[in-house]
């Protein structure tokens, strides 16, 4: 007979093997900031560049993680685990990278393009896990996300196969040409009528717009989710139709949002919703 382990039991087992863990609530998302850190009032974890608990003693800032069993089983973490529905882990903190394949087409691509490694079945696809770390990136190709540093992945069991080293093929997925503009969506005007060149390609104009958007997000003191969405919407409404907004500039906006406690998934959802509203 199979015995179902509680999220805390599973988490303790992972932590004992050196894998940083955190509880997930309903919806497969981390617990929100504690009252002290609500709306990022505490200023966030120092630099927000490294994993681990923030200055408060709770699972905070969307995905703070730990391997310390004393922390995991003590208040107020213990309360979070009693309400948790599943376990997540920080791949980068464990020296790993997860290639998250969301559908059958992505899996077919991976089988043809990537070396075999440890594989875990997910609700819609598979996680391919490699030994080694890199910067996390969403939507590196259709149905493919990369989860490593400053990100989390849901733990769905040990999977099958043997871990292999992170290949250059995966690292290359995250390498973009930042100076190259995205092509305009089909049917949209690249430049305003009567002008020979898109004005957004004036570096100062585009840079000023992105810098103002970063500042608006960074200075938000409340309603961070709404501020991020409205800012993304404003940027896309001005700069999203001509195709000159670069991947590097989009990454800067995401980084500003993550600095306010937003997860990579939240950023991607806000960006997608803004594009959908504008018909991009």
List the helices and strands and how they pair.
Blueprint: H1 7-16, E1 21-25, E2 29-30, H2 69-72, H3 77-83, E3 86-89, E4 96-101, H4 104-113, E5 118-121, E6 126-131, E7 137-141, E8 144-147, E9 153-154, E10 164-165, H5 168-173, H6 203-218, H7 224-239, H8 247-259, H9 264-278
Structure, described:
- It is a single chain.
- β5 (118-121) and β6 form a beta hairpin.
- α6 runs parallel beside α8 (247-259).
- The strands form 2 sheets. Strands 4, 5, 6, 7, 8 and 10 form a 6-stranded mixed beta sheet that branches. The protein has a 4-stranded antiparallel beta sheet with strand order 2-1-3-9.
- The chain has 280 residues and is an alpha+beta fold.
- The chain is built from 9 helices and 10 strands.
Quick summary:
The chain is an alpha+beta fold. The chain contains nine helices and ten strands. Strands 4, 5, 6, 7, 8 and 10 form a six-stranded mixed beta sheet that branches.
């Amino acid at each position: 007979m199979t015995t179902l382990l509680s999220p805390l039991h599973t988490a303790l087992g992972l932590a004992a093997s050196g894998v940083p863990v955190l509880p997930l609530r309903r919806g497969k998302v981390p617990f929100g900031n504690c009252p002290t850190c609500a709306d990022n009032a505490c200023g966030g974890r120092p630099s927000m560049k490294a994993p681990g608990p923030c200055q408060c003693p709770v699972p905070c800032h969307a995905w703070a993680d730990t391997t310390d069993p004393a922390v995991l089983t003590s208040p107020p973490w213990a309360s979070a685990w009693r309400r948790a529905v599943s376990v997540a882990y920080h791949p980068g903190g464990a020296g790993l990278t997860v290639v998250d394949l969301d559908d059958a087409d992505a899996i077919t691509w991976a089988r043809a393009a990537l070396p075999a490694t440890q594989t875990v079945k997910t609700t819609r696809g598979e996680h391919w896990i490699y030994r080694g770390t890199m910067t996390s990136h969403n939507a590196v190709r259709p149905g493919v996300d990369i989860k490593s540093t400053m990100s989390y992945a849901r733990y769905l069991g040990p999977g099958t196969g043997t871990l292999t080293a992170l290949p250059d093929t995966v690292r290359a997925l995250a390498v973009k040409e930042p100076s190259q503009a995205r092509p305009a969506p089909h049917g949209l005007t690249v430049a305003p009528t009567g002008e020979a060149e898109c004005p957004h390609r004036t570096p100062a104009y585009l840079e000023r717009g992105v810098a103002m958007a970063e500042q608006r997000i960074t200075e938000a003191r409340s309603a961070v989710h709404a501020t991020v969405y409205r800012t993304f919407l404003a940027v896309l409404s001005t700069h999203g139709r001509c195709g000159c907004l670069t991947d590097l500039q989009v990454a800067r906006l995401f980084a500003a949002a993550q600095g306010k406690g937003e997860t990579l998934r939240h950023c991607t959802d806000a960006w997608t919703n803004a594009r959908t509203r504008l018909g991009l």
